[in-house]
């Protein structure tokens, strides 16, 4: 039987696909653009057309599948967008669904991941919730523009600390549980990087490794939200969710460091300095 990986072109999904293949599993990489997936994995895995918003794509994607890596695309803000797919899993003999959730979600009902976790648990399908901290990829993604163009980390996290984790490490952790479903079923793991740092420290790492003076802008929450909408042209809903997540961060919700990654993989997670070194070219103007 095979493992279906949703969001397989994403920050975490692509690493789930690669690691499961390395472990000898048969993988189906799913997404809305199969041509892109074919090029990305260079014919090494099967690909399937899959769209959460199009239930008619589910049954083909789920053929011969007994484990699922489930992620919520960031722009699908309502948990209800994911429910039809979870419900359809009940009709298949699924041995494990590994859901890409969020650190601290067990105590925070506001982000959609909270209710998605509950829905999975209520379905009776064996599950593992993977609850990562903030991804380092946010620095080379959402926040790259200000670093490149203005030498500033523009994140409204105040003086709080964050245990940033590399998305590739989150992928390794998810692959580990999918490879040994019976060992991990009906549990949750909080996956963090090896250290908690504030964004002044992150700016220093960036400055030291790029050779440019990069500072931490430390905008207020509202200023950041308005900037995202008015100057970056980001969707209002997305800007609101991001601002809310950084508001929580200010209360210390993103600073815990756990050893769950080591327990699952036997490896140490990447440091922020490792990540910056690997992506040095990306930060160039
Ligand atoms: N960023 C963080 O710091 C962080 C931290 C903790 C948890 N998380 C959670 O991790 C998840 C992934 O976040 P991310 O920012 O890293 O995103 P990402 O992996 O870059 O997400 C985009 C993925 O979603 C897929 N997708 C988009 N629309 C789809 C649809 N209608 N049906 C099926 N697939 C669709 C895309 O595939 P196609 O290209 O094939 O459409 C792509 O692979 C989110 O739920 C987020 O809340 C993020």
Q: What's the arrangement of secondary structure elements?
A:
Layout: E1 2-5, H1 13-22, E2 27-31, H2 34-40, E3 46-49, H3 58-61, E4 65-70, H4 83-89, E5 96-100, H5 112-123, E6 127-132, H6 137-140, H7 144-150, E7 152-153, H8 167-179, H9 181-184, E8 187-191, H10 199-210, E9 215-216, H11 221-231, H12 236-250, H13 260-265, H14 272-278
Parallel strand pairs: 1-2, 1-4, 2-3, 4-5, 5-6, 6-8, 7-9
Pfam families: NmrA (PF05368)
InterPro entries: Ergot_Alk_Oxidoreductase (IPR051604), NAD(P)-bd_dom_sf (IPR036291), NmrA-like (IPR008030)
Domain NmrA-like: 2-216
Q: What portion of residues is helical?
A: 40-55%
Percent of residues in β-strands = 5-15%
Q: What strand line-up does the widest sheet have?
A: 3-2-1-4-5-6-8
Distance between the termini: 46 Å
Question: Which residue ranges are poorly predicted, with pLDDT under 50 across at least 5 consecutive positions?
Answer: none
CATH superfamily of the domain at 2-135 and 165-193 and 256-269: NAD(P)-binding Rossmann-like Domain
Evaluate the radius of gyration: 19 Å
CATH topology heading of the domain at 2-135 and 165-193 and 256-269: Rossmann fold
Give the overall form.
globular
Assign the structural class, choosing from mainly alpha, mainly beta, alpha/beta, alpha+beta, or little secondary structure.
alpha/beta
What average pLDDT do the residues reach? 96
Q: How many E strands?
A: 9
Q: What is the succession of H and E elements? A: EHEHEHEHEHEHHEHHEHEHHHH
Which distinct ligands sit in these coordinates? NADP nicotinamide-adenine-dinucleotide phosphate
Count the DSSP helices: 14
